Amino acid sequence: MLSAVLVYFVPRSAPSKSLILYEGRTFFSTTLRRALIGKGFREIKGGFDDSHQPILSFEIPTQLSEEQALTILRQIVRRKACTLHSIERLPQTTGFTAIIDYCGQVIGSITLLKGSELSDYRLWRKAAKPQPQLAIIIDDFGFSNNEVIRGFIHLDAKLSMSVIPGHNYSSWSAAEGKRNGKEILIHMPMEPERSEGNTRQEPYLIHQHMQSSEIEQKIAAAFQELPQASGLNNHMGSLVTTDPDIMKMVINSLKRKGLYFVDSLTSPRSVAYEVAKSQGVRAGIRSVFLDNVQDKSEIEAQFEKALEVARRRGKAIAIGHAHPETLEVLKQLIKSSKIAGVDLCFASEIVL
Questions:
Q1: Residue pair 291/322 in contact by the 8 Å Cβ criterion
Q2: CA 265 to CA 288: how far, in whole Å?
Q3: Separation between Cα atoms, residue 250 and residue 266, nearest integer Å
Q4: Report field, pTM of the whole predicted structure over 0.85
């Protein structure tokens, strides 16, 4: 009896990296190939890159768009608990290359090509080990138009600006940010566990007792005010993001509008990211908060942490706020060598 109990309760050792890699590459080279062929994709060429990572290449069926092909690829890899680690669009809408990850390990790259000119394989013969990526989201635009706000807007770097709807400079911030090459998100107010004095003054606040129609109306109105937005992340929300029923309503509204979602992770009990993935919405999750402490040395340390996460995991999302200290440290970071080997990118480029 005791031996049976021990067998049942004693944790099993985790599978080795070599076993994970073997399982992943077996899926990549057999199941994935067969599934794409079954969907009408024509295999062009296979092989290995310089780092011995496997490469597959297929022609997209003429009746499918690139986005439809990408959707099919996502559905196939998801069955095996794989993820699309990163996606690189090829020039002149000729297709895309996707790096595929299984249990935290890159198992290969696949290129799906569109069109009649498919002879230049230099487009897709590249290392399957991608450059680490860091997306920086700066929250809380919309309240003012001052030197710091304009500093972020005119910063010479890929930056995602998250704008709270319903304030004096919300529309202006989104329009100016987009005009200056920034990516725009809706910073949607959501009910926190502990309401602050001005929480209920947020005109677009989503709270825990709302019906689906009310949530849809709030998000639709926010998107109408900020049409430049390609995604949404939560402002506050330590209560709402822990409620799977409310978050499913939020995510389904985003899905209808083609918006991606970033979980700001204001609560360790948040289920927002998992709900988004279960509903087939592209999503990401915050890795590091940059400026909970508005001190330059502390912000520098958090940037270092974000870069370390990006290098270790391949990608990271750092969230900061429109503070002068954050702007100053970000300017210094861009000019320094600390960021070497890490690509600054928009949040939309790494959410999957």
A1: no
A2: 9
A3: 16
A4: no
* Vertex 76: Cα angle to 71 and 61 (nearest 5): 55
Residue 113 backbone dihedrals phi, psi, to 5 degrees: -110, 150
Three-class DSSP category at 22: helix
For the chain, domains (ranges, CATH) are 17-123 (3.30.460.10), 133-349 (3.20.20.370)
Spatial separation of the C-alpha atoms in residues 303 and 320, rounded to whole Å: 10
- Contact of 284 with 135, CB cutoff 8 Å: yes
Q: Parallel, antiparallel, or unpaired for β 95-102 and 82-89?
A: antiparallel
Q: Confidence band (pLDDT; 50, 70, 90) for 16? A: low
Please provide the distance, in angstroms rounded to a whole number, between the alpha carbons at the two ends of the chain: 47
pLDDT digits (tens, 9 = 90+) for 192-236: 998 765 666 688 999 999 999 999 999 999 999 999 999 999 999
Residue 20 binned pLDDT confidence (cut-offs 50, 70, 90): confident
DSSP percent split of the chain into helix, strand, coil, nearest 5? 40, 25, 35
DSSP result, 240-294: GGG-HHHHHHHHHHHHHHT-EEEE---STT--HHHHHHHTT--EEE--EES-SS-
Mean pLDDT for the chain? 86
pLDDT digits (tens, 9 = 90+) for 234-271: 999 999 999 999 999 999 999 999 999 999 999 999 99
The backbone torsions φ and ψ at residue 164, rounded to the nearest 5 degrees and listed phi first, read -80, 125
Determine the average pLDDT of the residues in 294-320. Answer: 94
Residues 6+ apart with CB under 8 A from 143: 164, 167, 168, 169
Could you give the CA distance from residue 352 to residue 334 in angstroms, rounded to a whole number? 26
Q: Which helix (H) or strand (E) holds 221?
A: helix 212-225
pLDDT digits (tens, 9 = 90+) for 57-116: 899 999 999 889 999 998 998 877 788 877 877 766 678 888 888 876 788 888 898 875
